[in-house]
Amino acid sequence: MLNFNPTGIEQIDDEKLRIVWEDEHESVYSFRFLRQNCPCAACRDEWSGEMLFDPSEVPEDVRSMRAEMVGNYAISFAFSDGHGTGIYSFENLRRLCQCRECSHHLGSETN
Ligand SMILES: [Zn+2]
Ligand SMILES: [Zn+2]
User: Fold this and answer.
1) How many domains, in total, are found in the chain?
2) Ligand 1 center to residue 30 CA distance, Å?
């Protein structure tokens, strides 16, 4: 059972965000990656989870202009490409963790 409570959320630089979880796991995300994985209804089919846009079209230098807590379960980002409707639940963010350990658990999805 994964723990989805962050104890620390920190913007490392223009490009990266770090989240430290209650179980001391640490996740680092590029804002481009987060933007590419936007969970909003315009970016992702609600039922199939299929992406509704081409992730390669996300600008290389996209960054977060603003990050806001949504309740106590999620963060929303206002990205520099003008998109800001995605609400990233902590559960989703933890699943998106790109560290070696977490990518390993995804198995075939990393191919
Ligand atoms: Zn979106
Ligand atoms: Zn991880």
Assistant:
1) 1
2) 16
The answer to whether position 1 is within a domain reads no
Ligand 2 centroid vs 25 CA: distance in angstroms?
A: 6
Domain with 27 in it: what CATH number? 3.30.2020.30
Angle at 58 between CA 53 and CA 64, to 5 degrees: 120
Ligand 1 centre to CA of 20 (Å) is 24
Report pTM.
Answer: 0.88
pLDDT in tens, 24-48: 999 999 999 999 999 999 999 989 9
Boundaries of domain holding 46: 6-110
Q: What is the mean pLDDT of residues 70-74?
A: 94
